[in-house]
Amino acid sequence: SAPQPAAPVAPPAPVDPADMPVDTSPLPTDDADALLDRLSAVSAQSQAVSDRVQEVTSGIDLAQQERDRAAAEVERTSREAEAAQAQAAASAKDVTELSNAKYRGATAEQVAAIAGAGTPQAAVDRAAYINALRANDRATQTRMRESLEKAASAKSAAMRAKATADFSVSDLRHRQQELAERTSQLDTLRDQITAAVDGMSPEQKQRWVDRHGPIDVDVQTFLGQVQEAVSSGPLGSAGDVAQAVTGAVQAALGKLGAPYSWGAAGPDAFDCSGLMYWAYQQQGKSIPRTSQAQVSGGTPVSRDALQPGDIVGFYPGVTHVGMYIGDGKIVHASDYGIPVQVSSVDSMPFAGAARY
Fold first, then answer.
1. Ramachandran region of residue 284, left (φ > 0), alpha (ψ -120 to 50) or beta?
2. For the chain, is the Cβ count within 10 Å smaller at the N or the C terminus?
3. Residue 341, helix vs strand vs coil
4. One of 332, 333, 341, 348 is an active-site residue; which one?
5. What is the pLDDT of residues 224-268, one digit of tens each?
6. What is the pLDDT of residues 141-164, one digit of tens each?
7. Whole-angstrom distance, CA of residue 49 vs CA of residue 102
């Protein structure tokens, strides 16, 4: 038989720069291109690690809250289980007394009770009474068993939830420790980047600033065009949505020229996701803080369906974000030494987009 074609091999998943070893070798000083490439790589890794630190810190806060809720639930269900056990013990006493009563006098034995009845009707009544006692006995025992099972199940579920929350906190703290070591290494590199960028010749610095092809725009004219495009487009019937997206664009464009700073979210300096977060915050809308979370947290948008205000992710693993402002352009905070600027949406590899 003919050989079967080989199954297609799935491309490897992108490696998160935050998980890559930190290159602590000295920065190249005698090769301008190599220096710029290295600065770009270190900056991307710094941004990724900064994002993960924020995600883990937020995750620890949420996990601790969940652990506290789980601990309170364990305490509550433990009290309920103890109460159910106490009630079961009391019910068991009542059942024992009831059983003893059935075996005394006329109710000691159903046959004897019926035989001792003076009339047929009395025999029927005594038999019915004894059966009622037995039914009540069984019902009491069933309720007791169900109450104990329910209390035990609730306590078990609460203890499992607490164990899960404990593990989550422990795992996140371990991740936090790993990231702290990387952050310490990157802090040293950031100092080197700062010194290298600040020490660049004017020609090198301009090449660094121009690496994404900055585009000069007249903000007010451009905003008017954006507002008109949004109002006449698919969002035109939703004035509040149009106002929100153009408002976010206006807020971001209002920060053109602001300096880049790792981990900053305004109002005077920004990292890439910090600018997105701040711009939407000015519209009273809260979005996730980190690059990956911003692109994965909203409504997914394809490259050909971008609207002003959409957040666009770049590079494998979404290590950078910018805001689409229309006309094929984004506004973004790029790297240290590069002020907030407008660039083409095609200046970096597209990795996804989201709408809020």
1. left
2. N
3. strand
4. 332
5. 887 777 677 655 444 555 565 678 999 999 999 999 998 899 999
6. 777 778 788 888 888 898 999 999
7. 76
CA distances to 19, 22, 134, 305, 347 from 314, in Å:
18, 21, 75, 16, 9
Q: Which of 126, 162, 211, 320 is catalytic?
A: 320
This prediction's pTM: 0.67
Q: Round to whole Å and give the CA distance between 326 and 229.
A: 9
For 57, half-sphere exposure in the C-beta direction (CA atoms, 13 angstrom radius) is: 10
DSSP-derived pairing of the beta strands 350-355 and 299-300: antiparallel
What is the 3-class SS of 207-259, one letter each residue? HHHCCCCCCCCCHHHHHHHHHHHHHHCCCCCCHHHHHHHHHHHHHHHCCCCCC
Using a 10 angstrom Cβ sphere, with 0-12 exposed, 13-18 middle and 19 or more buried, the burial of residue 162 is buried
Unique residue bearing structure tokens 């593990």: 167
Q: Is the dihedral of CA 148, 153, 156, 162 positive or negative?
A: negative
Does residue 272 have an active-site annotation?
yes
Instruction: Look up residue 356 and give its two tokens.
Output: 């809020």
Rounded to an integer, what distance in angstroms lies between the CA atom of residue 203 and that of residue 237? 49
d(CA 306, CA 328): 9
Rounded Cα–Cα distance for residues 151 and 167 (Å): 24
Residue 341 backbone phi and psi in degrees, to 5: -145, 165
Helices (H) and strands (E) in the chain, counts: 8, 6
Higher-pLDDT residue of 167, 233: 167
Q: Clarify whether 332 is annotated catalytic.
A: yes
Q: Is the pLDDT of residue 132 over 90?
A: no
Query: CA-CA distance, 283 to 291, in Å (whole number)?
Result: 19
